[in-house]
Design a protein that fits this description.
Length: 610
């Protein structure tokens, strides 16, 4: 009996020890996650954003070492957690949310002002529609937003319903919110290709690290991209072709077992408003969605196969209804970018002039990170096909189809020199899932040290690429309170019909009085920019003298940074031109602070009287 009692006690002690060890293992990711967040938050108070003006690598140059240590710890914690089969999804989702917060909320917390000039401009479009409605025939620089107003009309309704005068109060937080919203359909897309939680969450992790493009701010593109991902996710999971059957990841689950085929017409009916919202909000995304659906249908991966025709019909219908006035007015601009794919392959974040050395690092860093994602995707696609059965391999053909669906756009139109960025963005969800298979090609593989080390090293390298791509140009994306104050003074002062001249668009502009002003810029077209460089005082005086009686020239430190980082003007040209204007006697300063100056042309009669 004593021997029996000792055996029971030994077994009980062994079980208790195992439970204790499992509890410690389960708690460890939460402890490391908390430590990373505390380390990140504690370092934010050490950042001096005023140093951005002279920082060669943008925000990277001014972030403290604690920021990067926190990110490195988060990478390691996630990679350790995701490889353990006993890790539950709340742990992994908490790591992903923490990654989004650290990467995308940091600028909003540090700056206190809104990034990107386009975000300021979009606030003005929302305000205009809230007050005056949609005008499809509105011309000028901002007329394109009236032709595709869906996103702006939505926020006009929301701000009016909430009693807000402008979207500026919440725009800076829309960026991290968009990244969180995108994760939902990306997870659904990943689950259509695999049931392996390691592959799913690693794909989501890589998607976030690869999303350096900066299209997640308050914009029609971010809204339309979310809807695009949602439509694709629904099609992959519920509109599969009967001949191919449901995705292998769903075939043996309660999601499909014992259930009749989905009522496809109901799903299509639900997708139609999403398609209409895409078509009415953005010019490029409807074409990308049509291309993706067409390829899925062509390869018998989609049913009904007429769904691409529905999307194409909605797109053409909206162009004829709302977009035609703008297209008619800007036909030459649209046609100028067609059929020149080489212009797109050369388009990047840099201009053709001399650029700072730090921007060369940024340029090649983001190219290397993007290429690395593509190479990882190819390796993952190959490894997955080697380690899985024929049905699973054939299901991944859809992944390849969707990844390449957007590439054709690169040879069609330059999209203002941004098409390469957009192609990468639309391919990224599918590249990320395929790239995750480079580490986890088979659901049968168990835990190993190399299974932790390789993803950790890779993700650390991708973090560097993200930092270069998303933070590397913050010297021009950050607007100091002084720059914002100058713009606010200008828009309080300039009367309707005035002309607002600037070196480039890199300052807060058009956030109010959307339709009051005209906006010439000194950096475009290139021939005019060269004229400004040769004879700045005469050229600018002629421009403002031939314009409306009320003309203003605003020059800001953010514009100077933009001209320098993009290599538009030679080094020192911006300061030289500014000084020439101030000492010419032809302009008077009407507003000035440490980061901005606003000038008006002195009337000729006043100059004669001197």
């Amino acid at each position: 009996m004593r021997s029996s009692h000792r055996s029971v006690a030994a077994v009980g002690g062994s079980v208790a020890g195992r439970v204790a060890r499992m509890s410690n293992v389960a708690v460890l990711p939460w402890v490391s996650l908390t430590a990373c967040l505390v380390l990140w938050a504690s370092g934010l108070g050490l950042v001096d954003v005023s140093r951005l003006e002279t920082a060669g690598l943008g925000l990277i140059s001014v972030l403290p070492i604690s920021f990067w240590v926190a990110l490195a710890g988060l990478m390691t914690s996630f990679c350790w957690s995701v490889t353990r089969r006993d890790t539950r999804w709340p742990v992994l989702s908490a790591h992903v949310i923490a990654l989004v917060v650290i990467l995308h909320a940091t600028p909003a917390i540090l700056y206190g002002t809104l990034r990107y000039s386009w975000a300021w401009k979009h606030a003005g479009v929302v305000s205009f529609i809230a007050h005056y409605g949609i005008h499809f025939n509105h011309g000028g620089d901002l007329g394109v937003y009236q032709g595709w107003p869906g996103f702006f009309a939505l926020h006009a309704f929301l701000t009016s319903a909430a009693g807000l005068r402008t979207t500026l109060g919440y725009e800076q937080w829309v960026l991290p919110l968009n990244d969180l919203l995108w994760l939902g359909p990306v997870i659904l897309i990943a689950r259509a290709f695999t049931s392996d939680q390691r592959l799913i969450w690693t794909g989501v992790w890589l998607f976030e690290l690869g999303n350096w493009v900066g299209q997640d701010y308050f914009s029609p593109q971010s809204f339309a991209f979310f809807l695009y991902l949602t439509v694709i996710a629904v099609c992959l999971r519920w509109l599969w072709h009967p001949r191919t059957g449901p995705p292998p990841a769903m075939a043996d689950t309660s999601e499909t077992a014992g259930r009749p085929p989905p009522r496809r017409w109901v799903i299509v009916l639900c997708l139609t408003p999403l398609m209409a919202a895409i078509a009415s909000s953005h010019q490029l995304t409807p074409l990308m969605l049509t291309a993706a659906l067409t390829l899925l249908a062509a390869f018998r991966q989609l049913r009904p196969r007429t769904l691409p025709l529905l999307m194409a019909g909605i797109t053409v219908g909206w162009i004829l209804f709302g977009g035609l006035p703008w297209l008619t007015e800007n036909t030459s601009f649209v046609l100028s970018g067609i059929g020149d794919p080489w212009a797109n392959t050369g388009a990047h974040i840099l201009g053709q002039g001399q650029v700072p050395a730090g921007q060369i690092v940024v340029k090649w860093g983001v190219r290397a990170a993007s290429a690395a994602m593509g190479v990882l995707a190819l390796i993952g696609f190959w490894r997955y096909r080697r380690h899985n059965d024929a049905h699973a391999r054939s299901s991944w053909n859809r992944l390849a189809v969707l990844a390449v669906a957007a590439i054709g756009a690169a040879g069609v139109n330059s999209y203002g020199g941004e098409i390469i960025f957009r192609v990468y963005l639309f391919a990224l969800p599918f590249l990320s899932i395929a790239a995750a298979a480079a580490f986890f090609p088979s659901s049968r593989a168990g835990w190993s040290a190399s299974g932790v080390v390789m993803p950790a090293v890779t993700t650390l390298a991708l973090v560097a690429g993200f930092g270069l791509g998303n933070y590397g140009q913050e010297a021009m994306n950050y607007y100091s309170p002084q720059v914002v104050a100058a713009s606010e003074w200008l828009y309080r002062t300039a009367p309707p019909g005035a002309m607002v001249v600037a070196a480039d668009t890199n300052y807060p502009w058009a956030f109010v009085h959307y339709d009051w002003y005209t906006y010439p810029y000194l950096d475009s077209p290139p021939s005019y920019s060269r004229t400004v460089l040769r004879a700045p005082v005469t050229t600018i005086a002629r421009l403002m003298g031939n314009g409306p009686p009320d003309s203003y020239l605003i020059l800001t430190r953010s514009q100077e940074a933009g001209m320098s980082l993009n290599g538009i003007w030679p080094p020192g040209a911006y300061q030289r031109i500014t000084q020439a204007l101030l000492t010419s006697g032809k302009f008077r300063v009407v507003y000035s602070n440490g980061d901005a100056v606003i000038l008006r042309l002195i009337p000729r009669e006043a100059n004669r009287g001197r």
